[in-house]
Known about the structure:
Blueprint: E1 9-10, H1 16-27, H2 34-42, E2 48-55, E3 58-68, E4 71-79, H3 88-102, E5 107-113, H4 117-125, E6 129-134, E7 144-150
Parallel strand pairs: 4-5
Antiparallel strand pairs: 1-2, 2-3, 3-4, 5-7, 6-7
Amino acid sequence: MPSPHWAVADSTDADIAAMVTIEQDRYGPDAWSELQIREELGRVPDSRWYGAVHEGEQLVGYVGLYLAPPDSDIQTVTVRANDAGRGAGSALLAAALARARAVGCRRVFLEVNANNTAALALYTRFGFVRLGVRRRYYKDGSDAVNMRLKLDSDAPALGAP
Length: 161
């Protein structure tokens, strides 16, 4: 279960600089630019929702969700490298799934780097299933795994032990 320590709040423009830094650190050549992040946040609440967790004044991680009921798509779940494994990713994912349910979404899709074993384990723990693979999807040539969660199923969608 996500730690109660991580309270997820709506992302704001004040988070953008830290988001850019975390993006570059975590994703290198696949990182979103400041402009891309600003454009995504500019689509809230029409078709996007972005949440963030902070420790004090520091951004720890963020989640992005594209909403097109009955479907939604996880755009990103990103946590600072030194905070990985502390439950922030679980809290962010749980909040995104709750938001998707709240607006009437029945399915959530995502794609994740096939080499990101921690993220694959997180998504599997939340009930996501693999749909397929996109070969050489990322700039470094690695594959993306496409996954789906049916929110109307009995899957443990809001967290898992």
